[in-house]
């Protein structure tokens, strides 16, 4: 099931599986414009019957819900840059797409011989502009969390992913409909023009760079050690974090590298690796991010290093205390042997001012 987050203040943010897949596929230095459409057969889970969200890179820029039937800005710079005519025009388009999605949810249910239950159809399409000027487009359709059919942007033909999608792709590929050619023009021209325009609107936000903070730790068991490297607070989302052995060998990690969002718009990632430390081996966490001028390397100090350091600190403290006790005892013995001071000696002059060495201790 493709999850969604929604609240009553129309802060609509769909976070589908496709979003994660396509964000991870966007190359470093490139920019993308993507739209996600979702239609549901009923309101069982509190979702609107139709919703639309648009993203430039990782920033949501627009949204639409059948609950209020308004195409709205999701960022301040979109609100400021586009006038009322734009939002009215896009609202009318979205209303037409809402009717299209409601119809196609029923069509998909018929294809799968389903007459009841909660079902979801989604469409994702967009374009990408590389830093070298290269462009590419994509379009994908999903039903109940599984790929339904997609647009092959090399042959420019719709390809079914399941048997139930064959009738739809045959119709869309037919000369009468010719959907691939129409969408080719959109993805290669109209979409790219829109992407460039939106990038100029939100340049300050979209091109900001925040370097990651990195923290390493370990968890030791009887037969292995789990190394943990956490990078957090970075932006943009693309990052490479890995454990390296002896300066050159990548350490395999069984855990999935899932990049998670933070409330402030930054991201975090934790990478773990299980090792069996041997004498002479070294391990370090390597981090590469667009905010860094060079690779960030954080070396693991080795097993029990913290415990050894703590032992040294405790030993120093014990020695200091023993020296203080010895000094006080020696002074007391001296006083006892010395007896009363001479008339010209003022014993109380420094009575309330102990030596600085004792204060420091």
TrEMBL record:
Entry coiled-coil feature ranges: none
InterPro entries in UniProt: Ig-like_dom, Ig-like_dom_sf, Ig-like_fold, Ig/MHC_CS, Ig_C1-set, MHC_class-I_related, MHC_I-like_Ag-recog, MHC_I-like_Ag-recog_sf
Keyword Transmembrane helix in annotation: yes
Domain Ig-like: 212-298
GO CC list: external side of plasma membrane; extracellular space
Lineage: Eukaryota, Metazoa, Chordata, Craniata, Vertebrata
Cross-referenced SUPFAM superfamilies: Immunoglobulin, MHC antigen-recognition domain
Protein name, per record: Ig-like domain-containing protein
Chief location: membrane
Keywords, comma-separated and alphabetical: Disulfide bond, Glycoprotein, Membrane, Signal, Transmembrane, Transmembrane helix
């Amino acid at each position: 099931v493709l999850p969604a987050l929604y609240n009553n203040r129309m802060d609509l943010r769909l976070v589908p599986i496709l979003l994660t897949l396509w964000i991870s596929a966007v190359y470093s230095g490139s920019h993308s414009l993507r739209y996600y459409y979702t239609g549901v057969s009923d309101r069982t889970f509190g979702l609107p019957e139709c919703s639309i969200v648009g993203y430039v890179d990782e920033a949501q820029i627009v949204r639409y819900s059948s609950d209020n039937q308004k195409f709205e800005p999701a960022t301040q710079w979109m609100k400021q840059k586009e006038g009322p005519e734009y939002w009215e025009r896009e609202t009318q388009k979205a209303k037409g797409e809402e009717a299209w999605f409601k119809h196609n949810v029923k069509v998909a249910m018929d294809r799968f011989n389903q007459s009841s239950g909660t079902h979801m159809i989604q469409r994702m399409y967009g374009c990408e502009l590389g830093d070298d000027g290269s462009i590419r487009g994509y379009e994908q359709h999903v039903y109940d969390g599984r790929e339904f059919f997609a647009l092959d942007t090399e042959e420019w033909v719709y390809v079914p992913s399941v048997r139930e999608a064959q009738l739809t792709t045959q119709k869309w590929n037919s000369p009468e409909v010719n959907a691939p050619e129409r969408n080719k023009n959109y993805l290669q021209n109209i979409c790219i023009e829109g992407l460039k325009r939106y990038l100029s609107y939100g340049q300050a936000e979209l091109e900001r760079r925040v370097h990651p903070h990195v923290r390493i730790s370990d968890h030791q068991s009887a037969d292995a050690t789990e190394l943990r490297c956490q990078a957090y607070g970075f932006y943009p989302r693309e990052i490479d974090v890995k454990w390296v052995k002896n300066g050159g060998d990548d350490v395999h990690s069984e855990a999935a590298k899932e990049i998670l969002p933070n409330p402030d718009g930054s991201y975090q990632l934790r990478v773990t690796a299980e090792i069996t430390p041997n004498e002479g081996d070294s391990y370090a966490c390597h981090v590469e991010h667009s905010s860094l001028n060079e690779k960030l390397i954080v070396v693991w100090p080795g097993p029990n290093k913290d415990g050894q350091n703590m032992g040294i600190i405790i030993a120093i403290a014990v020695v200091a205390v023993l020296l203080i006790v010895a000094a006080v005892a020696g002074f007391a013995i001296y006083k006892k042997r010395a007896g009363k001071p001479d008339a010209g000696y003022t014993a109380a002059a420094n009575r309330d001012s102990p030596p600085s060495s004792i204060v420091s201790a």
